[in-house]
Structures are given as structure tokens and as C-alpha cells.
Amino acid sequence: RNRERNRGYARAYRERKRVKLQTLESMRQEMLKENSRLQDEAQTRTRAVATVSAERDALKDRLSRAEAENTALRNWIQALYTNNRPAATQAAAAPATQAVA
Predict the structure, then answer these.
(1) Torsion of CA 12, 15, 21, 24, to 10 degrees
(2) What is this structure's pTM?
(3) Which of 5, 60, 84, 85 has a beta carbon 3.0–4.6 Å from 89's, enabling a disulfide?
(4) Nearest residue to 15 (alpha-carbon basis) of 23, 4, 5
């Protein structure tokens, strides 16, 4: 009787162990899949960040060039305005300039 009971306990123990190992292996497979998915997602986000950074840098360069062009145009307009003022305005400005000098 003892021997049969021990065999029954051993059989039940092996079955529980087998079920537990199957569960653990199933969880391991799920975690591997999840890890792979997360790595793919991280790579996708890294590429997206690189793309956005490149676009930002290109826009900064474009803005810098536009600002430089705007400054040059303002200076050019100011020079045109100064050189093409009516004679009376230039004469009125001349004594003030000479008085300072």
C-alpha cells in the first residue's frame, strides 16, 4: 500500500512539475515575442527621432538664410531711402550732422 501511495504522489508531483514547466515555457515565449516587438518599436521611434531632428536642422538652416536675406533687404531698402530722399530733407539733415561734428 505504501509503495502504491508513494507512486501516486510521485506521479502527481511529476504532472504538476510538467504543467509548471509548460506554463513557464509559454510565458518565456510570450516574453520573447513582447521583447522583439518592443525592440522593433524602439528602432522605429529612433528612426523617427532622427528624421525629425534632420528636418528641424534643415528648417533652422532655412530660417537662418531667410533672416540673413531679410536683413540684407532691409539694409538695401534703408540705403535706397537714404540716397533718394528729397533735397529739402537732405539739407535739413546735413546741418544737424555738421553741428554734431
Answers:
(1) -80
(2) 0.54
(3) 85
(4) 23
Q: Map grid coordinates 531667410 to a residue.
A: 66
* Nine cell digits for residue 93: 539733415
The cell for 61 is 538652416
Q: Tell me: the pLDDT tens digits for 36-86?
A: 999 999 999 999 999 999 999 999 999 999 999 999 999 999 999 888 876
| Cα–Cα distance measured from residue 31 to residue 25, given in angstroms and rounded to the nearest whole number | 10
As given in the structure block, the three cell numbers for residue 82 are 537714404
Q: Residue 93: which residues within 8 A CB-CB, separation 6 or more?
A: 85
The three cell numbers locating residue 24: 513557464
